[in-house]
Design goal:
This protein has 247 residues and is α+β, with helices and mostly antiparallel strands. The chain has 6 helices and 11 strands.
Length: 247
Amino acid sequence: MASRRCLLRLLSRCLAPQRPQPLAPISISTRTLTSLSDPLASPTPRDLASLRLYYPSRCHFATRSSGDEEDDEEHYDDEESEDEWGEEEEAVAAKKLSGKTEEEKVAEATEIGYTVVGSLGADEKPFKPYEPVFAVVQIGSHQFKVSNGDSIFTERLKFCDVNDKLILNRVLMLGSQAQTVIGRPTLPDATVHAVVEEHALDAKVIIFKKKRRKNYRRTKGHRQELTKLRITNIEGIDKSETVAVAA
């Protein structure tokens, strides 16, 4: 059995075609150059490909010239100019983000019923003790009866942040122990001051829709955006505690 295996191996080696031995790169390049009919003629693409195969292109690193230094200086100048005009670009970007100018924002806020005065300072103390005065103000499409120190939740007010001071201009009625003033429909000289405490979300409301025998069911949730205001002062009415006696 062992001899039979040896004979089979010898026969397979003898009958198998011999693979050509790879030639050295130098001999191939020499043979390619010598095989040209005319040494001065331009080589064929096949010859060039064989040369590139065995002699790959080398990387050449050139030194920097004076022109490159000038380009770098211009690049640094461009960066400085960008820093100078950065503030203006930010203002333009903010305008594009909201899509409205400051005048348009003020007009829209006034139409809703408030005006942004400014941010609350660190040393300011706008909250005062309770006073027996109430006011009915309208913000958007909702009316609120408020007194000094009360907190109310309204729909999200645009163009104002937390700790901003607001003036509620649309006052419908004022009342105290001495008098009651009713507007037609508003009181031009009455104002209610407030401070924005936070922007929050209301409790989730589930909206469920169904159509019987149609395989139609839709469930959706909604959380209304709210703004919490703290009333700080009411102006435009006599706050004396003397009660008027009927004659």
